[in-house]
Amino acid sequence: MSPRPHSVPMNFNTMAQMDVPQGRNGKHKLIVTRILSDLDQLKDGVALKVPLADLAESKEKVRAALNRATRKEGRNVATATDANYLYIWNENQ
Q1: Strand stretches in 25-84, DSSP E
Q2: Cα separation of 3 and 88, whole Å?
Q3: pLDDT by residue (tens digit) across 62-91?
Q4: Contact at 8 Å (CB) between 88 and 35?
Q5: What values do phi and psi take at 77, rounded to 5?
Q6: Do the Cβ atoms of 35 and 47 come closer than 8 Å?
Q7: What is the DSSP-derived secondary structure letter of residue 63?
Q8: Rounded to the nearest 10 degrees, what angle do helices 29-41 and 59-73 cross at?
Q9: Is the pLDDT of residue 26 over 80?
Q10: What is the DSSP code (8-state) at residue 74?
Q11: Cystine design at 75: which of 34, 36, 62, 70 (Cβ 3.0–4.6 Å)?
């Protein structure tokens, strides 16, 4: 194949593909990472109690991000909420 003619100017800047960042650090990464770390240390029958006031995003968005992360890792985690807290625990297989 012959190279494309450069008659039309480029609309965007370019960079080497090897320099493109490959990971995705979403805005929920910090809270999800902290929750997963605590879940790793939980004994059976114990739940995390995360104050909703401490969440930067809505509980629905945090639950969705947590669900994506746990599914990716093949973990079974359950959640519940009340007016003040998000409860999270490991489900037995």
Answers
A1: 48-51, 77-81
A2: 56
A3: 999 999 999 999 999 999 999 999 999 999
A4: yes
A5: -130, 140
A6: no
A7: H
A8: 60
A9: no
A10: T
A11: 70
- From CA 78, how far away is CA 87, in angstroms rounded? 8
The C-alpha atoms of residue 32 and residue 64 are separated, in whole angstroms, by 10
What is the pLDDT at residue 2? 58
> Buried b vs exposed e over 31-49: b needs ≥16 C-beta within 10 Å?
bbeebbeebeeeeeeebbe
Q: Tell me the C-alpha distance between 41 and 81, whole Å.
A: 21
Residue 56 identity: A
> For the chain, how many residues are written?
93
Instruction: State the Cα–Cα distance between residues 51 and 14, nearest whole angstrom.
Output: 44
H or E stretch covering 89: strand 85-90
Instruction: Tell me the residue type at 92.
Output: N
Query: Dmax of the chain from CA atoms?
Result: 67
Two tokens, residue 74:
């093949």
